[in-house]
Design a protein that fits this description.
Low-confidence stretches: none
Order of helices and strands: HHHHEEHEHEHHEEEHEHEHEEE
Largest sheet: 6 strands, mixed
Oligomer: single chain
Strand content: 15-25%
CATH topology of the largest domain: Purple Acid Phosphatase, chain A, domain 2
Structural class: alpha/beta
Helix content: 40-55%
Shape: elongated
CATH architecture of the largest domain: 4-Layer Sandwich
Number of helices: 11
CATH superfamily of the largest domain: Metallo-dependent phosphatases
Distance between the termini: 50 Å
């Protein structure tokens, strides 16, 4: 994304976000017994809370690595900004609900809304830092015995960056390795930031262990930042980056074709990813966005692994996301192909998870019942 595109999008999003905060401010300050300077300061605080995430996003795009003191200040800013973003989004939704229900615009209603939003924000922060292990059995027709029980570990949407740092990634990698997978698939959106700033925090991914390798495909967020830089960095860490290409994995007499496509932000082509492939017993596609499934099914894949949706990440967006995504989370059947959509291992923006738990996914291939 160019600087001009970034600035244009930031201006549009920032303007809308500020208007939403004015809406929240009207509900909070309307019944408040404030006048004069105190009321002006209260409105200033509302606008500053709106702009905190925008400031954090802009500063994250700076070049170079900050020193220790500035780095600590940035971490405090990031946590404050993105926590405020989560709290604000809940306040916006809850006040819209009070208007739809025609509740009186009183101090007691405002206090109840703020208390509920604050409680859910704290709960969401706790839950977001605890990804669970999800085990999924995928039945494959005519799967040879040498591939029965083949285990693929999927990590997706780590979003290493403002509030997800090395300690979190180290813990995820330790838990992933303890599951002893045969192959590791990382399905995009590894980082939110530039390589020099986040290299140290992404480094634990180089410790992922699997006898048949670790593979990566790009997500849309790699294109928001520095897709070439992140591809080079992940290759340096020992990951095999699949950009509309494939690899043949052989265990005994069993042959598994593993293909990967770039995100839909670029020239993503499931058919091209398998072009010229040798015969195989099962075809697996790594594709960041679930919407690739229709082209993947037409291209003859047996299984697609995706992420992107975060399962909606937190209430009520885990319900609303279904209006925009054909597949949100879990295992789906699309004619002859299986699709698994991870809810994501990390989170984006607000450090919250409510009703859409983060996951480390272990998928096991098994012959389908006759």
């Amino acid at each position: 994304m160019s600087k001009l595109q970034f600035a244009a999008r930031l201006a549009i999003v920032g303007g809308l976000w500020t208007l939403f905060h004015i809406y929240v401010g009207a509900h909070l300050l309307g019944p408040a017994p404030l006048a004069g300077l105190p009321r002006g300061l209260a409105w200033t605080a509302v606008v500053l809370v709106a702009w905190l995430p925008l400031v954090a996003l802009v500063t994250a795009r700076r070049e170079g690595v900050a020193g220790p003191s500035l780095g600590r200040m940035m971490r405090v800013l990031n946590w404050a900004a993105y926590t405020a973003m989560g709290l604000s989004s809940l306040l916006i939704v809850f006040f819209i609900a009070t208007d739809l229900l025609r509740l009186p615009d009183t101090a007691s209603v405002a206090l109840a809304v703020v208390s509920a939003a604050a409680f859910l924000t704290v709960l969401g922060i706790v839950l977001a830092r605890r990804p669970r292990v999800v085990r999924v059995t995928v039945p494959i027709a005519d799967l040879p015995s040498d591939l029965a029980g083949f285990r693929i570990l999927q990590l997706s949407d780590l979003h290493i960056g403002p509030t997800i740092r090395r300690r979190f990634v180290d813990a995820v990698v330790d838990r992933a390795n303890a599951l002893r997978p045969d192959l590791v698939a990382v399905t995009g959106d590894v980082a939110d930031g530039l390589v020099p700033e986040l290299r140290e925090h992404v480094a634990p991914l180089g410790r992922l262990q699997a006898p048949y390798g670790s593979y990566f495909v790009t997500g849309n967020h790699e294109y928001y930042w520095d897709v070439r830089g992140w591809i080079a960095e992940l290759r340096r860490l020992g990951m095999d980056v699949l950009s509309n290409e494939h690899r043949l994995v052989q265990r005994g007499a069993g042959r598994l074709l593993l293909a990967g496509v770039t995100d839909l932000s670029a020239a993503s082509d499931p058919a091209a990813a398998a072009a010229g492939a040798p015969p195989s017993d099962v075809r697996v596609l790594l594709a960041h966005q679930p919407r690739s499934a229709f082209a993947a099914q037409a291209a003859g894949y047996d299984l697609q692994l995706s992420g992107h949706t975060h399962g909606g990440q937190y209430f009520p967006f885990n319900l609303l996301v279904r209006l925009f995504q054909p597949f949100v989370a879990g295992l789906h059947r699309l004619e002859s192909m299986w699709l698994y959509v991870s809810r994501g291992t990390g989170y984006w923006g607000p450090p919250l998870r409510l009703g859409a738990p983060a996951e480390i996914t272990l998928l096991e291939l098994q012959p389908s019942p006759q």
